[in-house]
Amino acid sequence: MSDAKSAEKGVELKIGEEKRVGVFVCECGVNIGGVVNTKAVAEYIGTLPGVKVTSVNKFTCSDSGQADIQAKIKEHNLNRVVVAACSPKTHEPTFRACIEEMGLNQYFLEFVNIRDHCSWIHMWEKEKATEKAKDLIRMGVERAKLLEPLQASEVPVTDKALIIGAGVAGMQSALDLADMGFQVYLVEKEPSIGGRMARFDKVFPTNDCSICILGPKMVEVARNKNIKIMSYSEVKAVEGYVGNFNVKIEHKPRYLDVAKCTGCAKCSEVCPVEVPYDFNEGFGTRKAIYVPFPQAVPLRAVLDKENCISCKACAKACQSGAINYDMQPSFTDLNVGVIIGAVGFKTYDPEPRHDFGYGLYDNIITAMEFERLLNAAGPTGGHVVRPSDCKEPIRVGFVNCVGSRDKNTNIYCSGVCCMVTIKNAQLLKEKRPETDQTIMYIDIRTPFRGYEESYNRSRNLGVKFLRGRPVEVKEDPVTKNIKVRVEDTLAGEIRNLEFDLLVLATGIVPNEGIGQIQQLLKLSKAADGLLMEAHPKLKPVDTTIDGVFLAGCASGPKDIPYAVSQGSACAGRATILLKNKKAITEGITAVVNPDVCVGCEVCIPMCPFQAIKMDEKAGKANVVKALCKGCGTCVAACPTGALEQSHFKNNQILAQIKNVFKFQEVAA
Amino acid sequence: MSAEAVAATAAKTNGWEPKIVAFCCNWCSYGGADSAGMGRFQQPASARIIRVMCSGRIDPLHVFNAFLEGADAVLVTGCHIGDCHYVNGNDKTKIKYKYLENVVHELGIEKERLQLNWISASEGEKFANFIRDVTEQIKKLGPSPLKPEGVA
């Protein structure tokens, strides 16, 4: 679509011009055609006043379908087009472009949904579906006749990007955008970038050391001149729109000057306060002032004020005088063109429900905790021990699908836990071949490259797989061993097993603060609490908000390669805007008729975007088009009818309402 | 709903299908209706959806007109509170709705005939259940007292 051309095309409104409507009914293969009698619909619609031609296509969106529309526009000199097909949310742009190529204003298209809203939901009521389709298209035809030409406007795009979340997905987006030459702000709420991946021991299916492959990437991010890392910071406010987002970032106080701190950790050595170490999933302790982990980026200490006893030992120990107990939060205002949300995930917490005895018995831990025990930099130096007596367990049980595929918690499959368990069992077997592992599963899911091979490898190593979910988990009060009663559904028998340690593969759940990000960015949240993409298949990293993209687990469970791919995908999608330096926005806005406006100012507080200003001299309201988002809330509030919303004018909506109904001759 | 259940319900009500005008916002409830389709959540063929950009655009004028033209019920739907694509359009809908509801009731229209619901773009099943519930309620009430003669 050429913008310069669109500006010239058909924008003038010819008063009294005859409305020549063409209606194109799509069969969508059998999706519509299998339920709705499209021929009967087209025949009926053809009798409506103003309809010059109707056409039924197998697939209206196909090349031949679009060519049919264009040919009929030419042949019948059509000036309004109604497409009755699927959802305008996916296909409106296609047909707008199609009619625009023929010189029609793109807003002369009316899109009627007879698939999602009709054939798909009345699959067994063909007659009623056909009648409903007639109603819906009649409504569309009458609305189409009243449509007016509009111009899409162009807005400049600031060629800078904000990325929220510096896990592996966010870091990938940052690196890709930065390497393409764009300025990137990478905001991370934790004191170090790296996200969840920094906590893993080894990563499947190749079992390479997680931090060994992530660490260099973290350093690369820090070194890149185009990336500004804002760690220990959070997004507090987002205003504006595609190309021009104004964002307020809060930098939480670290209580030390990051420019002076060298990350030597002398302060931690002298700090007398010990608290559970969150990086190690609560195993072991850290000090109240600490460096998050040895590979942290930025490698700077942070003071946890909640647990600090103000003994000031750290200030004395710090040779560079970095400590500042009076530090206050500071703020940065950014102007960016695009935003990428890579807000990550957390693992399901089995504590509140005591799933499989977690929280009741010492020797039941989560896979994430197991991960830290396996890790050489973890609390036990890589020795897997059980919490009750710190002895190395021999018999280890693994339970899959904890907090996943369960109607009491989350119904979805977290996708990664099978592989996490398989990998963890393998690693323990390799470390200590005398150990005996049993994985209790519902189904084993190993869909991607190298995953099935890894599964086979663990079987060859002697890891046992038992299909069944534990029905009873108890602790032996003397030995503290875990006794599990489980039905082996393949053998068809109940097994009573005893383990020294039981590991729960907890699923992926939405990260803390995801609701706040959702509200700040105006995104949609699905019933499972995860953020929604613009289209589950064709726009997996876009959102319904132009210029906002999603990467990684924010929009559903993902493994590392998938999250990294999405990070790159977001960078690619964002680059379209950043490189073009402009975005096309909808032409739909509110419009004031000054002849009718009485200057009552009722509309002004209605607008959340401050788009309506009073023209003090004339005493009339005035809509600032660049700020108006076209929601129409002010229009509904206007008591005199001076405000109208283009493309959703009162007469257009009323025409639809009127044509929901059909006047039938009453039998005499 | 199975094919048999759909047929059974249709037989029970003598085939009369109420006509329900459902106003949906582009971002949430219209998407919810799309999701109902994608999930093939079967529902009575009673609703006719009119899309607006925001539930805040729904003017009491539209609702009254729908009743006067012959609607057996009118549904006002939008994003969940806090999730509005336009910050807070649905908050304003909620306030307006309270007054609208009173006026409609004073006109002698049963409360079941005007309903408000917040439905997100992912809540296809909720959308279908809502249409089914309202349709059943209206079938019990029969055609709207305001429906002009000869209108279907």
Task: Briefly characterize the structure.
The complex is a heterodimer of chains A (668) and B (152). With 668 residues, chain A is of the alpha/beta class. The radius of gyration of chain B is 15 Å and the shape is flat.
**Fraction of residues of chain A in helices?**
25-40%
| Largest sheet report of chain A | 5 strands, parallel
Helix content of chain B: 40-55%
* Largest interface chains and counts: A-B, 58 and 62 residues
What is the arithmetic mean of pLDDT of chain B? 92
Question: What is the first-to-last residue Cα distance of chain B?
Answer: 26 Å
Shape of chain B: flat
Treating each run of at least 4 consecutive H or I residues as one helix, how many helices of chain A? 18
What fraction of the residues of chain B are assigned to beta strands by DSSP? 15-25%
Tally of helical runs of chain B: 5
Q: Say how many strands of chain B there are.
A: 4
Please give the CATH architecture of chain B.
3-Layer(aba) Sandwich
